[in-house]
Amino acid sequence: MTPAARIAAAITLLDDWLAGQPLEQALTTWGRHNRYAGSGDRAAIRDHVFDAVRRRRSFAALGGAETGRGLMIGALRAAGVDPVTMFTGEGHAPPPLSPDETGPPRAMSRGEALDCPDWLLPEFEASLGADTDAVLRALQARAPVFLRVNLARIDRPRAASALEAEGIVTRPHELAETALEVTEGARRVQHSAPFRDGLVELQDAASQAVVAALPLRANDRVLDYCAGGGGKTLAMAARLPLTLFAHDADPRRMRDLPARATRAGVRVTLLAPGEGSRAAPCDLVLLDVPCSGSGSWRRSPEAKWTLTPERLADLCRIQAQILSEASALVRPGGYLAYATCSLFERENAAQIAAFLARQHGWQQRHARLFTPRDGGDGFFVAILQRQNTIQG
Ligand SMILES: C[S@@+](CC[C@H](N)C(=O)[O-])C[C@H]1O[C@@H](n2cnc3c(N)ncnc32)[C@H](O)[C@@H]1O
């Protein structure tokens, strides 16, 4: 496909998305109906579409309309390319620009320039203060691809060499001693021997830093209460030998966990929903709670536009409930670790402050907010310790 034909395909997909079709579904359907497109074409079209969803407001302002066509005209202008060179109408290129589409772009509001829904600007400001604009700008870019080196099996330099032998170039990242950032060959990772053999896993660098911050000791009894696909379960297992339990309210989310654990050479006991108490009393319970995901909107840009005030309030209620129910599973003297991939204060520090105010006998030992300016996704982690003498 020519570069212009790829843009025409991205326009169709963006129109489907704007009409309400989920992005992944639109991409799969398009792929099925356009089998002539090679893997390079599909990857390039996917990149166009994800960039446009991430930068929906600024591209629409630059392109003059919130349509697939307007977004792609805006994308070209943002990249310093005159859209006239691609919108030629020749072959499979999109039709030439109309007079309306060639006028000078209008001034943008702050929310448009930062690609942020207006209702969320105060939420970001209350959470990030003077860093708001810089963090929102960081969220406009593509997320880097990070790998976690399984230090139980191999050290970071040797993992980097094994990957390089397969054309995957990486560099160490300072967020965690397990982290490698892929700078070339990211699409080869899942077919590579180091990945197949469990020497490396795909995992965001801040997510790795969260696991590195957990106060774990050898042979601890640990429950990953919101385990999902088990990214953090496996990262904990790679740190040191543990008795590990994984639980999730939706067991389908843990479907891939047994195979991933086998590949990594670790044992994890899966618990049915509501049976978290079978792991108690725990030395550490990790609560990687459901959240707005605002820290990972580079990776999942659709979520930025679908979050509503009602959904955010619901998530906060669920987080508070999980904190209350799962804290009971920690032994006296043990730890509760609370994590989100959100940048919002009310899902993070405020949620912990409210827990400490209503539940006596806990002390905060550590808290840190990572933002995309640190390189990885936005993440929050707080570590609370249960007092040995339980009061109230
Ligand atoms: C952020 S994801 C977990 C990601 C996972 N820990 C990882 O690192 O790959 C949050 C998970 O919490 C689960 N969840 C939602 N409500 C829950 C609840 N009340 N109790 C336990 N898990 C819950 C969701 O099904 C989802 O899998």
From TrEMBL:
Under the heading PANTHER family, the entry gives: NOP2 YEAST -RELATED NOL1/NOP2/FMU SUN DOMAIN-CONTAINING, RIBOSOMAL RNA SMALL SUBUNIT METHYLTRANSFERASE B-RELATED
List, in alphabetical order, the GO biological process terms annotated in this UniProt record.
Answer: methylation
Q: Which domain of life is it from?
A: Bacteria
Enumerate the residues binding S-adenosyl-L-methionine: D248, D288
Q: What is its EC number?
A: 2.1.1.-
As for family, the record states:
Belongs to the class I-like SAM-binding methyltransferase superfamily. RsmB/NOP family.
Does this entry carry the keyword Transferase?
A: yes
Describe the location of the SAM-dependent MTase RsmB/NOP-type domain by residue ranges. 135-392
Keywords for the protein's UniProt record, in alphabetical order? Methyltransferase, RNA-binding, S-adenosyl-L-methionine, Transferase
What species is this protein from?
A: Plastorhodobacter daqingensis
Q: What does UniProt list as this organism's lineage?
A: Bacteria, Pseudomonadati, Pseudomonadota, Alphaproteobacteria, Rhodobacterales
What is the name of the protein in this document?
A: RsmB/NOP family class I SAM-dependent RNA methyltransferase
Which residues catalyse the reaction?
C341 (nucleophile)
Is Ribonucleoprotein included in the keywords of this UniProt record? no
Annotated region (Disordered) at 90-110
InterPro entries for the chain: MeTrfase_RsmB-F_NOP2_cat (IPR049560), MeTrfase_RsmB-F_NOP2_dom (IPR001678), RCMT (IPR023267), RsmB-like_ferredoxin (IPR054728), SAM-dependent_MTases_sf (IPR029063)
- One Pfam annotation, family name? Methyltr_RsmB-F
